[in-house]
Amino acid sequence: MKKIILLLGFIGCVNMPGMAQQKINPDTIKHKMQWFADAKLGIFIHWGIYSVNGVDESWSFYNNKISYADYMKQLEGFTASNYNPKQWADLIKETGARYAVITTKHHDGVALWPTKEHHYSVVNNTPAKKDVLNPFYEALDKNGIKRGAYFSLIDWSYPDYPGFLKDSSRYKVANDPQRWQRFQHFFQAQINEINTAYKPDLWWFDGDWEHKADEWQSEKVRSSILSLQPNAIINGRLQGYGDYETPEQNFPVSRPKFNWWELCMTTNNNWGYHPDDINYKTPFEIITIFVDAVSNGGNLLLDIGPKADGTIPDEQVHILKELGKWNKKHEESIFGTIAGLPQGHFYGPSTLSKDSTTVYLFLPGQTTGNIMLKGLDNSIKDIQVVGTSAHLQHKVVGKIS
Ligand code: GLC
I need a labelling partner for 314 at 20 to 30 A (CA). Which of 17, 25, 372, 387 fits? Predict the structure, then answer.
């Protein structure tokens, strides 16, 4: 993929319509969201006991593909014996990503940290026998990468959680509000443990669809996180109490109308380690989707699924390294830019420098031929090919009406 940068005095930049943020001060939020808006790329990590047999994370037992007992038997195989958090963090750094989000706990309820709550953790219930979260976050710190914590609100293993399998649940909240209250205390205590011990820069909640905001006590969850970490960013899966939107696997063809958003996407078809899934996207495809997201004002949160021993599958390492190479060469056109031209000016993705004097045009796969940009009301100072020393000529055709 080639990128052309046009250095010109461009008037006006693209402003996206605002997402209504009730009860949240817009100035405070704009300020704290700045690093996220500039970050463009995050790496998502789904690591849990599901990597032992390489089955769907949590959903495999929920959907009755495997019995709950067999699913939980995977606890015995989660060794983390080759886990090298420094290597993980270095690889993430190499991609150019500015933040990483790891599954502290998926819907199966197994915590990656030594939870003090009476519940499953890799520390107490697997041969790994250690906190795998802390060394990872410390390694991220060393590389200047922000700490993200994925946390599933749903906990299908907890005895006081109503949901269990798709065709059977434990109870109904309305019939036993006290039991639900016990769950509220439990999950909020776990959030508090993570917030206190690891101080995530970003919270990535998941599973809010199973209950409403008042049942999760979303407002309380948000304010208790912010009371300790006022600058923490919270994703949109908290029934209306998050800071940004999280389209999953794809986003609309037209520009999403959100202030901040992040596309989360798998490298193959699965979030966790799935050796039978070889349907990997090519680096070209991933870079194209990444550029498309950035061009439309969003970030990409690209997922990997390490094995139970902690090694990252070769195909995923390859993708991350290729993405890193590309980012290194084209850094200026991605990081620290803002969303590109509105539709109609250019048949492809674009970004703008923050001062809107440079427009970056992306030409996936094109190495020869003409490039057309419509409706320019500025004089063009220079045209360069990013990452090379090449300069291009231009010709003005017609007039703006
Ligand atoms: C969905 C799935 C979950 C996955 C998540 C990542 O919400 O429930 O398994 O972790 O997407 O975005």
Answer: 387
